Amino acid sequence: MTKQCYKCGEVKPVSEFYRRTDTPSGLRGPCKLCQRVYSVRFRKKNPGKIKAASNKHYKENKATLCIKRAIWRKENTERVRASDKKCHDKKMAVIRSHKEDRGCLVCGEKAAACLVFHHRKSGSRCVKTGRSFSNLYLRRIKEEFEKCEVLCANCHMIFHEVIGFGTLGFNNTAKEIIAIVKEYRSRPSRSAVVA
């Protein structure tokens, strides 16, 4: 069985047409290829409409969509695991690159394994204690970078030794962080004082 596409005019087998139950033939007028071309153009011209329709559909069908997603994830564990690993590796590469590019603010250490993020202002973290940056979306990771200075583990521990661990209400500029750590390092060590 064949049908003529009203867009391109070609006669094609009915398998080349999408179904549409409200038409006499039970098929759409344009062939699948013409329909795809139209859909791509429409999406490019109307991104706002597409986004609004997508959000509306999600809100109206959230429970069903969540169940379908959970079922799909359960049935495709290997694909999910591979996708999650790829995403995690990409985020870790961005984090590692940011650390290595910046280096420790105080001593200049560049080894990513030694570097940590220090939030300039207390309470500004969107990452809860014990959670990694890698659990965030890439956009949120980049937003978090803006709130942080990169310090090596030693300089970070010295900073918190001086101001106190868990101290609330600190709001330090990069210069203040450098000054606090350098001032601490210039003190005589305890072993020198005892001897």
What is the structure about, briefly put?
The chain is 54% helix and 8% strand. The protein is mainly α.
Question: Would you mind describing this structure in some detail?
Answer:
- It is a single chain.
- It is built from 8 helices and 4 strands, in the order E-E-H-H-H-H-E-H-E-H-H-H.
- The protein starts with a strand and ends with a helix.
- It is 54% helix and 8% strand.
- By secondary structure, it is mainly α.
- The strands form 2 sheets. It has a two-stranded antiparallel ribbon with strand order 1-2. A two-stranded antiparallel sheet has the order 3-4.
- It is elongated, with a radius of gyration of 29 Å.
- The chain has 2 domains: 45 residues, no CATH class; 117 residues, no CATH class.
Strand order of the largest sheet: 1-2
Strand percent estimate:
5-15%
Tally of helical segments: 8
* Radius of gyration computed on alpha carbons: 29 Å
* Molecular shape: elongated
The main pleated sheet reads as: 2 strands, antiparallel
Helix-strand topology string: EEHHHHEHEHHH
Structural class: mainly alpha
Number of domains: 2
Number of strands: 4
Determine the N-to-C terminus distance: 100 Å
Overall helicity: 40-55%
**Low confidence ranges:** none
Mean pLDDT, rounded to whole units? 86
